[in-house]
Design a protein that fits this description.
191 residues; mainly beta; Porin; 8-stranded antiparallel barrel; 1 helix; 8 strands; 10% helix
Amino acid sequence: MKTLLLAAVAAAFLLPGAAQAQDTTSDGSRAFGIDPYVGVMGGYEGFESDPGHGIPYNAPGNRLKGGLVEGVAGVNVPLGAFFVGVEGNAAKGFSGDIDWEYGVHGRAGVRAGETGLVYGKVGYQWVNFDRYGSNSGDYGRISYGIGGEFGPSAIGLDGLVKKEGVRFRAEISTRGDFETVRPMAGVIAHF
């Protein structure tokens, strides 16, 4: 009877300690929570001149393409060493054929401490082209890609920000059956 009582008392003290230990990952970062963010990115998108996948047909050699400035906003949910999230974006073309782009994507990936993320994303992206006039339609298709984020301390810039709320991001995405190429890079601010 004393052994059973001693085991019950030991379990009462050990279980809360085990639960508390799961509040952080092995590197000391927060294991669970909500991580909202906003960011600004820049890049380029080039479309194939083949018909289909929501992109209008153009004569061969007459590709639709252009430079982009993009705003993103989203939420990540850390799940131990992994994360899932959702992100919305709106982009304005500043050169070439693209007028506006907008979309929403789900993201999932692996965390590397408080500052690092490696992820894949899939969602839907729409584009409107300057070339077809101000009343032209929006062309949409499934979009997917890969990317990564890292904080300034990961590249030796510890003094740049007081808190690891700023990350650098680089990603590449495409639409349909690899009908486009869209490399982007920018700065993301986490709250």
